[in-house]
Amino acid sequence: MPSSTKSHRVALSSTPPRSPLPGSPGFHPCVVIPIYNHKDTITQVVDALEGLDLPCFIVDDGSDSATKQVLSEINLEKQQVEVITRRANGGKGAAVITGLLAALAKGFTHALQVDADGQHQISDARIFLVRSASAPDALVLGRPTFAENAPQARVYGRRITHFFVWLETLSLEIKDTLCGFRVYPLSAFKAITDKTRLRERMDFDPEIAVRMHWAGVPILNIDTPVQYDQQGLSHFDFKRDNLRMISLHTQLLLEMV
After folding, report:
1. CA angle 211-217-218, nearest 5°?
2. What is the pLDDT of residue 147?
3. What is the C-alpha separation between 18 and 97, in angstroms, rounded?
4. Which of 25, 75, 103, 125 could be cross-linked to 83 through a Cys-Cys bond (beta carbons 3.0 to 4.6 Å apart)?
5. 32: closest CA among 206, 136, 198, 184?
6. How far apart, in whole angstroms, are the C-alpha atoms of residue 142 and residue 124?
7. What is the rounded CA–CA span in Å between residue 60 and residue 56?
8. In the chain, how many H helices and how many E strands?
9. What residues of the chain score a pLDDT lower than 50?
10. Is residue 209 within 8 Å of residue 161, measured between CB atoms?
11. DSSP code string of 31-84
């Protein structure tokens, strides 16, 4: 697994607090946010999550100095936040893996993953967590509903990915594997990482969903709006990341066979 170093201040207790969510004994969730240079949106995302009253791990995947400054300020101001700093950029998947394993090591049972770019409707986070608390063994996946300004290449590209995922799982149970708004059951995630070296770039999100399905993890899908900001920062490289997706689905199809 990728190495990382923690920030100068550890703000989270090693004993996770009981979740304020109703009817969830033994359900101890936290938030994991991977970030790479999203200095203009991360504060807004963290502020929107405060109402959940949950500990939050922000995983800095080798961001620039301006982003590190913003994260340092958040780390000092927000008692519920811990910033984990990776030494070099390893990809979104690497950052998520680092955050999920750190959360598990702290004793949390589930992690709500949210992207740092502000595309997700954070007010839906409580819906995700309530559903997860009611079915703690399940992987809860966001199923995006797109605004009219969503890039059509991204929308149609998702449909191709969905087709391959349905082949790989022989099921229509997974409705979307590319949305970074989801809740992981951490013990099931750890069981997979113990057996498989997961991909660490944009291909992580679909791979872990497929492998959890293969492992018998129940899947819950929740519709949630996704807003594309035309001026926003996206790290998706159309050529390079689509080649990674082709490689991933080829591998998964061969493994399935």
Report:
1. 125
2. 66
3. 23
4. 75
5. 184
6. 10
7. 13
8. 8, 8
9. 1-19, 231-233
10. no
11. EEEEESS-TTTHHHHHHHHGGG---EEEEEES--HHHHHHHHHHHHH-TTEEEE
